[in-house]
Amino acid sequence: MAEEPQGDARHLETLDRDLDRYSSLEMATSYVSRPMVGPGIAFVFIMMAGMFAAMLFGQANNSIIVIVAACFGAYMALNIGANDVANNMGPAVGANALSMGGAIAIAIVFESAGALIAGGDVVSTIAKGIIAPESMGDAQTFMWAMLAALLSAALWVNLATWVGAPVSTTHSVVGGVMGAGIASAGLAAVSWSTMGAIAASWVISPLLGGLIAAGFLWLIKSRIIYRDDKIAAARKWVPVLVGIMAGAFSAYLALKGLKKLVKIDMSMALLIGLAIGVVTWAIMIPTIRKQSEGLENRNKSLKVLFGIPLVVSAALLSFAHGANDVANAVGPLAAIVQASQSGDFTHAVNIPLWVMIIGAFGISFGLFLFGPKLIRMVGSQITKLNPMRAYCVALSAAITVIVASWLGLPVSSTHIAVGGVFGVGFFREWDAERRIKNARLAMPDRPSVAPEERRRRKLVRRSHFMTIIAAWVITVPAAAILSGVIFLGIHAIMT
């Protein structure tokens, strides 16, 4: 009789061990499966895009290639959300003006609104005239080339996101179109003057963005931060800066983001920007005065005054990005749809609403599932940002696009925004060195900083800088080579 309790105890002990093992297995399964949730949801979205295209074109000619293209377009849109949108939201998150969740929510709303409301205007023949469409011979070859361009661009942006490098999705599409065009029709099919202008934008975009961002940071430092009465200086200059921001973004959106709704030339866009900028400046004078009441005379207090303008600028950048870059990215899909329906592949391409919907939803899913990595990279890992510095980056993005449009230069929103971050960081390094030299002149007996310590104090991470620059330089050739290989593979399979 005494052995039964011992047997029960042993049985319970064994059961506890089994339950512990089961619990450990459950935790391990959860840990292993968590990284697969994002790709799983992305895969479902890609399949749904294909099914949607099958419902629309299931009985049409070339339905298979349209369905495959819809899947590739959805994959491309996911990668835009994961990579490109970080440029708009990264500075605001890095400056702690927005939480990661808040940034993602705002970006989803405004990117989708930009794509669906103001996006989808006519895209010029085959990605802005990169190649001559008539050189491809027939619609079938053209559709294969656009399919290769779409897949190669998506694969390249996916790889760049995995590495942690923000790259231009538009340049990726351009490279893809060029590579497929060369593979199908030879080097003579490429418009090398257009490609030369795009190559020039690799240098022009980040330099313009960096110089303008650095210029505004110098203005903020010299007119506000380095003043004895910082709050009084802020009351004078913050309304001016917010007015400049409102005017710049109004002109930017009028010029670039509302082309589908109404055609506005440069002079009219600048007049609209000037009017809205002046009105905003007048409104902000009493607003900033009230907001600054009771603030202490220190730099930390100034961050409060830049928080809301920074959030607004991030939202407006997202709207403009959705209106412009999404159309470029899904342009090859729209071209395939048009060629499959009418056989016409030599004229301008209108982007159908369902293609823009795939683009808008894909961006939202890509940002939500994979965006935080690049948002952290742009916002905090290149250089340290606060609301004033992030504000300079956002403002430079709008102004640079306007200046480039006025000069007729092709620019990349990615290169501008990241160039602005670099510009802010390098300006801070220069300013710190300048102040150290001035302090040494004022106090000659002060010990100098060792070279190793000075290198350690660099305010821009050189490893990230070199990775991003390298990714920018090789984006077009890498996407082109990948696209050419994919096109030859498709051609070999289909013929």
Task: Give an account of the 3D structure.
The protein has 495 residues and is mainly α. The protein has one domain. Helix content is 81%, strand content 0%. The protein is built from 16 helices and no strands. It has helices at residues 3-57, 63-83, 86-94, 100-118, 125-129, 139-163, 169-185, 192-225, 230-257, 266-291, 299-342, 353-381, 387-407, 413-442, 451-456, 462-494. α8 packs antiparallel against α13. The longest helix has 55 residues, at 3-57. It is elongated. Mean pLDDT is 81; it is low at 28-33.
Provide the fold topology.
Blueprint: H1 3-57, H2 63-83, H3 86-94, H4 100-118, H5 125-129, H6 139-163, H7 169-185, H8 192-225, H9 230-257, H10 266-291, H11 299-342, H12 353-381, H13 387-407, H14 413-442, H15 451-456, H16 462-494
Transmembrane segments: 36-57, 64-82, 142-165, 172-192, 198-220, 232-254, 266-284, 304-323, 351-370, 390-407, 465-494
Membrane topology: Multi-pass membrane protein
Pfam families: PHO4 (PF01384)
Approximate shape: elongated
The whole-number mean of residue pLDDT values reads 81
Question: In terms of quaternary structure, what is this?
Answer: single chain
* Overall strand count: 0
Query: Main β-sheet: number of strands, strand sense, barrel status?
Result: none
Number of helices: 16
Low-confidence stretches: 28-33
Helix and strand element order: HHHHHHHHHHHHHHHH
| Relative strand content | under 5%
How far from one another are the termini?
A: 84 Å
- Which structural category do the helix and sheet elements fall into? mainly alpha
Number of domains: 1
Share of residues in helices: over 70%
